[in-house]
Design a protein that fits this description.
Chondroitinase Ac, Chain A, domain 3; 12 helices; TIM Barrel; alpha/beta; nine-stranded antiparallel sheet
Length: about 500
Amino acid sequence: MPHFETAGGRQVFYVDGWPLTALAVEIPWEELVYGRYRETLHAYDRLYPAARAIGLNTLKVPIKWSMIEPEKDVYDFSYVDHVKTMAEKYNLKLVLGWFGHYASNDGNLYFNLTGEFFAPFYIVSDEKTYPRAIDGDGVPHHNAASYEYDAITVREAKAFRAFMEHIREIDSQTRTILMIQTENEIAVFGGKRDERRLWRDHSPHANELFAAKGFTSDLKYSAWRLSSNWLRRVTDAGAQAYRLPFFVNFVAGQIGDDVLGGSPGEDVATYLDNCPSIRFVGANLYMPAESSVDDFRAALARYRIGRNLPAVTETNSDRTFVAPRFAYIAVGEFGVPLFAPWALNISYRNLYQPMVLADGTLANGAFALRDAYTSLSKALPQISYYANTSKLKVFMARLPGERFSETTEVEGIKVNVLGEENGQAILLHPSAREMVIVGYRCDIWVWNDVFKWPALKQVHADKGSWVGDRWRSEGEPLYEVDQVTKRLGVHLDEPQVVRIDW
């Protein structure tokens, strides 16, 4: 069963007995229309073969509560079954996102009234039974549920448990579904982060608790209340049915000294303390095209809080080189369990640059991401296991498009990496007589006394990939040996893995 294990003081994600990083991209939900879910069931089928062509091993798929429970206490798992069938057809794993709550825009219950419902209509249409949140000006919001009252939390916990019971029934043997994202971008009123009146619910019960508990920060109150009274109850109900790893995602950014993630109510430590069933808090990190390596590191380092394992749950899906560069840093240096740009057929931050066109063909940023994912996949168990250790080092230009040269040591072995045209590399030195080189558009030199006759007879260089712990040879790489300086050079013209042993 997918799970985390401690290895060398680090948390490593295991699937089918081997370390794994979910190299994913998300698909959207807009074409899955409330009231016509059966008619729109196949809306995104074209994206599955495209996902495989880009080199994904996992697809991140939203599942709306309104799809699961179209009528009160009536459950329909048709879409869950369909996405599992499609994923298995194209040899993909799945991360499913439970969208009972969506807070990127205005409110949390629905995006609009023409088909994008996240909560079921029986919840949306009944304000008396399921009270709405009230902003700081005393105005109730029809599209924002108040989680101060038990009614909606009880209903969602029941539905989420049924959802997880169904996953256990259909997937406990095949293990196609790796993780569950619970909710999307936690907040009460949505993503309007510059309006203090929207940082917490001001319903009468909320105001009473705010005063009684001695809170002074609206954001800290939201984090405590949303995690302890709502999300914990939902995730615990799901975990009782089937204990896959659960996670939540925050909008990246910063609006004050007392908030970490960005959206109102976000606080990594509070969520993890109050929600034992939540395994990690991921970040939706959209970066400028000119982002440096240091920018990537700083963005993820902010999520190294307590027991949290940073993850990239959304990032750029445009034509920039943000996603492929960020992937190498996130996977190699931080050991993220999940890296997932948003989205296959929608580009962001820059619009009109989708990775997959309407006819299913690849375009724009798909090719750069394919280079990164294809190369990582060839040594993914090893990279996932040794990530964030001294045995692994990532190499790339500080800024996109620059030519670079870096000389350093990896576990006592001197190396030099030269790259251009947004080339990048990962070097692994897992054992005394082995080097693993991953990457593309780079030249790598490795110094060692063994690279001189007669010791050179022991040296073996091979191009290939791993399946679990089994190396699969794909032929001889482009390499040369300089016996005068005792160094071996490897030329990575395309995404590949080269293993050198002696």
